[in-house]
Amino acid sequence: MEFLVRVVDKGVAVTCSKRGDVLSACPDGWAWSPEELTNDAWRIVSVNVLQSTVEAFLSNAGFVGGRRREWMLDFSLLPDPSLFTGVRTLPIIPLTRKQCTDAAVKKP
Amino acid sequence: MNVFCNGFPKSGNHALMKACELLGVPAVVNHIPYAEGLPEGTTHHVLIARDPRNIIVSWLRFHRDVVAPGKFLARFRQFESRSLAEELAQYEKWLWTAYVIRYEALIADDTAMRELARYLGVPYLEGAWEELDGLTVTWNAIKSDYRDVWTPEVIAAWYAEGGGKLLLRWGY
Question: Do A56 and B28 touch (CB under 8 A)?
């Protein structure tokens, strides 16, 4: 599975997606657009996770119509947080399932 | 193998889905009453069951409502479109035909997951249960606990209005 994740807040409103949010999830080898592959506000991570994990990252219960997510990736908990700041250095960042689940945080 | 996971809403359906996935069995969440029957080709039907009192508490929390005695009783009397007892009654016959796994047992230790693996005919994968907690759509670190609102007034109303029989029918 490949996740498109946001690394820069889209805005301050609660309905705006925030750093750490998974914006979309696609099968491995997905044909991401040039924008998705190069925009510095986003990263693409490749990780082998359960479908229940995908659903958790994409869930926004109680915020129908908004982009707010219930779960986020706390990049500081990943082995190389610098990959999720500033200019992109890798087109796709591989993560292990454990790295992904260890970095998953439920928002208050 | 065609596994069908099922359960009344707020019973631990996402935990059951994840448990199956951790055993290597694809699953999705379903809320299918008995009258609708099983999808054609189902080989294994797993029903998640939960203390009806905690179903109410979980429902309130999921809808970001206050967990208070009055709210609890109001939701007992009208869960969504009917009383909780009437809505749960739509699922009760599954208790006799499905493989029933209790949410409380599922999260307590690995016993229920090992038994689930046996029922599904797959090997239990060591460490699977340890991965169960967390990272589902509805997961909360603090589990719903009806005892927070189980006051003498609530107890009296619960049993006067059929809650005791409801608990017995669901094995609680």
Answer: no
Give the count of domains, chain A: 1
Length of chain B: 172
* Cβ neighbourhood burial of B145 (10 Å; 0-12, 13-18, 19+): middle
Number of H helices and E strands in chain B, helices first, is 9, 3
Cβ B154 vs Cβ B148: under 8 Å: no
Which 42-61 residues of chain B touch chain A by CB within 8 A?
none
Interface touch A106/B139, C-beta < 8 Å: yes
pTM over 0.95: no
User: What's the CA dihedral at A92, A94, A95, A96 to 10 degrees?
Assistant: 150
- Alpha-carbon distance of B128 to B38, in angstroms, equals 28
Q: What is the pLDDT along chain B (172 residues), one digit of tens a residue?
A: 999 999 999 999 999 999 999 999 999 999 999 999 999 999 999 999 999 999 999 999 998 899 999 999 999 999 999 999 999 999 999 999 999 999 999 999 999 999 999 999 999 999 999 999 999 999 999 999 999 999 999 999 999 999 999 999 999 9
Distance (Å, whole) CA A92 – CA B108: 38
Q: Which domain holds residue A34?
A: 2-106
Q: Which residues pair with B4 in a beta bridge?
A: B45
The predicted complex's ipTM stands at: 0.88
**CA A83/CA B107 separation, integer angstroms:** 35
Torsion over CA: A92, A98, A103, A106 (sign): positive
Q: Minimal Cα distance from B136: which residue of A? A: A56
